[in-house]
Structure formats: C-alpha cells, structure tokens
Amino acid sequence: MTTSVDIDPRHKPPGVEGAGFMATSLDKVVGLARANSLWPLPFATSCCGIEFMATMASTYDLSRFGMERLSFSPRQADLLMVMGTIAKKMAPILRQVYEQMAEPKWVLSMGACASSGGIFDTYSVLQGIDRVIPVDVYIPGCPPRPEQVLDGILKIQELARTEGRNRRQSPEYKAMLAKYGLE
Ligand code: SF4
User: How many angstroms does the Cα of residue 83 sit away from the middle of ligand 1?
Assistant: First the structure.
C-alpha cells in the first residue's frame, strides 16, 4: 500500500526531542482522560440537589460532558459534588466519604449552603464544607442555575486536564491536606 506522505521510521521527525517532551505529552494524555471520564458522587442533602437533577435531565443533559455515570460509592468516584445544607452532625460523614475516595479527586461545592452555610447561620449548620474538606470549585447561588452547575463542572474538567500527574505528590498538596488533618 502506498501513501502520499513518505515517513522514514529510522529518523525522528523534528520536534520530538528535548528535555521534558515525553513527560509533558504524557501529562496531556492523562489529563485529557481524567477530565473526560469524571465520575461524580452527588452528596445532595436539600434543594440544590433538585437543581442538580435538572442538570442531569434532558434539557441540560450532563452526559454531554462524559459525566452520565454517577457513583454512589466513594471508591468508584473522583468528583465529590456537595449540594445542600450540611449539618454539623453530618460533617464527619462527609469527611469520611471524602477520605474513602481515591486520588486523584476533586470537590465541587454547589450553592450558598454547602459553600458558606447560606442563610442558615445557626449553631447546627456547618458554615462551609471547606471547614472539613478541601474544595476545588465553588458555585454561588441559592440555588445555582443548571448553567452555573455546568460551568462549575467545566472548571473542574479544566483543573483535571491541566494539573500535572505528580501534583498530588507535591509538598504543597501534602501540606494542604495536613492542614485538614488528612493524609
Ligand atoms: S443554597 Fe439555597 S437552594 Fe441550595 S440548599 Fe441552600 S437553601 Fe437550598
């Protein structure tokens, strides 16, 4: 079989040599795979969860982003989506779910309640999930519109695509986890 382009496999084409070329390319491939195969765990406790259901439904169709496979098992999820009011009694459960997820993992805080306690400035409500677990992206609103949820997920995808494969082993990342008392 003949082709219109002559390729000589004995010689490398220009541009495939030099320090860091292989690592950079592998990072891109891994990032692309991670970003487009996120498995979200919906930790929905109240009304924001209903808005997420609308985001999943046919009008907004979250599966367009490769996200139709929700996981209710932390060990098979890499994106924790916290949606709704988190009572202080529930905080240890949320933290346990986070700890059960394998690295790499990301956290999306959807709505005012998850991000800051929202209107529930009371003794029983956690004033933001970032008091117990690290958060990657916050979505403002009460409740946020599905478009905002999609925007937040796109930002998580951008993070997954662009962060290096070894970021999770970096001293900065370990120091951040240590602040939360996590390993
Ligand atoms: S942010 Fe608003 S819509 Fe979302 S859980 Fe809180 S009260 Fe409900």
Answer: 8
* CATH number, residue 67: 3.40.50.12280
Digit-by-digit pLDDT tens for the chain (183 residues) are 555 566 666 776 666 666 555 555 788 889 999 999 999 999 999 999 999 999 999 999 988 887 778 999 999 999 999 999 999 999 999 999 999 999 999 999 999 999 999 999 999 999 999 999 999 999 999 999 999 999 999 999 999 999 988 888 899 999 999 999 997
Domain carrying residue 169: 26-179
- Residue with the smallest CA separation from ligand 1 atom 3 is 143
What's the pTM? 0.86
Inside any domain, residue 91 = yes
**Does the beta carbon of 85 sit less than 6 angstroms from any atom of ligand 1?**
yes
> Does any ligand 1 atom lie closer than 6 A to the CB of residue 44?
no
DSSP track, the chain? ---SS---TTSPPTTS-STTHHHHHHHHHHHHHHHTT--EEEEE-SHHHHHHHHHHSTTT-GGGGT-----SSGGG-SEEEEES--BTTTHHHHHHHHHHSPSS-EEEEEHHHHHH-TT--STTB-S-GGGTS--SEEE-SSSPPHHHHHHHHHHHHHHHHHS-TTGGGSHHHHHHHHHTT--
